[in-house]
Amino acid sequence: MHNFWRRFLQVVSLFGSLLLDVARFLQTAARSRAALSAEILFLRKQLAFYQEHEIKPRRLTDSARAALLVLSRMFNWRDALVIVKPER
Q1: Per-residue DSSP letter, 23
Q2: pTM of the model
Q3: In a domain, 40, yes or no
Q4: Is residue 87 part of a domain?
């Protein structure tokens, strides 16, 4: 029975996190194009910093994995991928 409640709390936590992600998505959708462009630029700079300094990414949570799954169905994410190869 203890295992049931632990699993139940994990599912509730997952749905709570997903609900928070939906709220953030709706908030983002309501922002101006300039604000979204600035955020994208910031995130790209942050990603470049992590790649330059070889910082290892943290493990994804269940809710983050579920959110990425849902988002991947909303657009062709393969077109957004960029392969970067440093010149030697």
Answers
A1: H
A2: 0.46
A3: yes
A4: no
